[in-house]
Task: structure prediction
Amino acid sequence: MRKNLFFTIVFSAMVAIFCQPLQAQGILKKIKQKTEDKVVNELFGEDDKGSSSSENPNSGNSSDKSSSVSNTKGGGLNSSAPDVKENINDAEKAFEKEEYSDARYAVRQAILGIELEIGKNILNDLPDEIAGLPAIKEEDNVTSSGIGFVGMIISRVYRSKDMELRITIGNDAAMLSAANAYLASGAYGSSSEQDYKTLKFQDERGVITWDEYSGYSLSVPFGQSSVFVAEGVNFENEDDFMAAANEVTLSKIKNQLGEK
Result:
């Protein structure tokens, strides 16, 4: 009896330990969603209880039959950004009618359109070539949640043969917390072969890391909640990588984002 109880306790402890990272991720997502919702709730009040919806991947009809036809046509989805003025007008009309759910949606779409435009402008200000590596503009990417730069990510890749430089700018909790963790520790290497250190990058504190497989990575928090990340693959040394990263002017990005 006692033996079974002992194994039960040990098993429960192991489950709790392994589940903890997953629970933390879930909590982070909930906090992020609540942060976004709070901004809109301050404008329009609490959500309409009847307007919320949920999606269950296991619900609905299912079929055991698989299609024997593969898709060979189609151009994908349209990538046009939401019309800011149109959505602002829609929000005003919905607000006047006390249709707060529709007003909320229109506000999100308007902010999303603004953020995508800001991201586009930042990409336009980035160099067309860095360290002899041309920009692969077809891989340019801007994503946003649509509320105050929460989760906004802007990225561009420079590549030639086996060399690559990836520039990422954004406001992302995971990216920012990783950089701040290094900076808060004040650490300078952790083993016989130094693999990370803090430094100054264009008047901002940052951290550079080195990995044998992924290469160099520079993370620089700036402003209130933004972060600049440069990742370099197959650069000869730290100096070459830092020279490439310095071809991006951080002050221009800060101005575009309204950071101080």
